[in-house]
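[User]
Um, tokens okay?
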Amino acid sequence: HVFLSGLAILPVLLKTLFDPYFVQDCSYMLNALKHGIRLAKYKKKKPFYSILDCFLDAVKKQPNKTFLHFEGTSHSYVEVDKQSNKVARALQTRANLKQGDTVALFLGNDPCYVWIWMGLAKLGCAAALLNFNIRSKSLLHCFSCCGAKVIIAAAGKDGLREAVEEVLPTLKQQGISVYLLSEECSVDGIHTLSEHIYQASDEPLSADLRASITFKSPALYIYTSGTTGLPKAALVTHERVWAASFIQAVSGVRSDDVLYINLPLYHSAGFLVGLTGAIERGLTVVLKRKFSASQFWEDCRKHNVTVMQYIGETMRYLCNTPKKDNERDHKVRIAIGNGVRSDIWTEFLNRFGDIAIRELYAATEGNIGFINYTSKIGVVGRVNFLHRRMFPYTLIKFDIEKEEPVRNSNGLCIKAAKGETGLLVGKITKYSPFVGYAGNNQQTEKKRLRDVLQKGDLYFNTGDLLRIDEQNFVQFQDRVGDTFRWKGENVATTEVADILTMVDCIEEANVYGVKVEGHEGRIGMAAVKLKEGKEFEGANTFSQVTNYLPTYARPRFIRIQSSFEMTGTFKMKKVSLVEDGFNPAAVHDPLYFLDPAMKTYVPLTEEIYTSINNREIKL
């Protein structure tokens, strides 16, 4: 019997051993396990050991090592530490901050972002990382949902000071203190901060100031697009900060690497994966105000960059730059990011050399993520035993038309078959929690899916469609529902629709994302129904969307419809509209295109359509 059962498992054993990815699977699992054990140790440590403490240990170990390079200046570990002490002391006296308070940061990429956040952490405060593209209603909403009583804004040329001044009456009404990183400001109700930081002592602060902070305490609030329209504040605990900081480690990043961050620090990618990952490894960071395709490789050569971050757009922009003889002359060996298409991925490697692409799948607030630790192109990871055991997940059948999971006669969800696209859901457990959104129980509840595989179970609904192929590789397919991604940002369709319906001629708007040849993600398009007897007003619509929406969220195409198709639950149907796209030869409704030069929406002609597809018109 033993012999026969041994023979029976032999094919499985041989298949596993001869799997070309077997060694990589084992290596990844061991690495992940090692960091899982480290996290468990940190959780038991008294007093609580945060990523800030990890930084302070690095200051002792390598005080003079460069931590940040920025626009020709360098800051060592000890300098950043001292600077953050000054910030903490200035905020302690000026803003009377104490443990447990939340402060909103409205800043662009700059070294002061790092030391202001660290100064707050030294006081036991959480930081809400505001997207610097948001204005007016969105800005006020993001501010109020995290419960912050203080906002710190930059005073540079990027219009952040003006954006704060615009909403100042409301902030004053709500008793919120506004601080500007400037030495002077004559506006009543705005306090300056730079002089106070400059004059403050750089002596270390007592760890007692943050003594009651634990793993479960909020460390950050990071904003994700809200399906109800306005962004949602994902609560990031100190435990999640640690978990995200390990992504670099499991991607093979070493302490002697140099990391290039050109993604915004208000995003999880730039802040959590990039900055806190760099602290965990003890690296040098090259920080860029914003991504520049023309300067990218020059920067990498100048600073001996070995690890880069990307979003799909980054790769495409780099592949679109003119070819140069020296474009393989760099030291970059690892690229960490997400959202790159297979064709761009291949082209990138062919042009710029053998770089290990570590494509991720994750969500700021989610409880399940993947990382492609192999050299397989076009996938976000692999199914492996340990990962599935620690973070139970499954793919379930999903009805795209109804935008809901398919359920059987018992009311349970149905698992998607191997090779079939399904909705990814992650089981909510002690080890894979879903903390939810600050001040928004309704949205938190919306992401919880009950009775998935058995009555009473609880899963996190990622809202993403993935598939697992025959070789156990995981591929990202699409996003469902009310958000789409463009220029690396999530766009909430209902927020855009709300803005459009404020235009005098528009009665209803149905917003969705459409694919454009040669571009990542989907660009915004809206089907609109006009008020009776009204004509479409291109210039008014243009000024409405440009005043209230960041560039990436503005619908570039408008389709005029006489009526909308609705689902049984009175939701507007989008699937057929998405498939129709914006080709004037195929769509018989009037179509318009947002023309920034003309400052209006112009009729979308065959000529414009061809120019977009030939990339003669920049989107």
